[in-house]
Each structure stands twice: as C-alpha cells, then as structure tokens.
Specification:
Elements: H1 3-10, H2 17-49
C-alpha cells in the first residue's frame, strides 16, 4: 500500500490521491512561509536592537 493510499484511508476527508498531494503541498508551502517570516523577523529584531530609541540608559529607568 502506498503512502498516499494509507494516508487517504487514515484521514477519511481526502477522497482522491490528488487531494492528499494538494494537502501535502499546502503544508510544505506553509512551512517554508513560516521559515521565511522567522528569518525576516530575526533580521528586524537585530536591526532594532542596535537603535537607541530614547537615549535613556537602564540606570535612568
């Protein structure tokens, strides 16, 4: 039994092989998009860390 057939049997909401493949591709796309957002966010966080927003030191708080 192929992976697609097994998955389709286990998850009854997928009626065709193409629906299983479509679901897998959507999951892959979401994973890649999540990684891209995390990378972009890390760049932004790093850039903001180097800025001095209010010129106050932590001792002035």
């Amino acid at each position: 039994m192929s992976f697609i057939s097994s998955y389709k049997k286990l998850h009854k909401n997928y009626k065709s092989d193409s629906s299983v493949i479509s679901h897998a591709l959507n999951l892959l796309k979401e994973l890649e998009l999540k990684e891209q957002y995390m990378d972009a966010n890390a760049e932004i966080d790093h850039e903001l860390d180097s800025l001095d927003f209010d010129s106050l030191t932590t001792e002035d708080w």
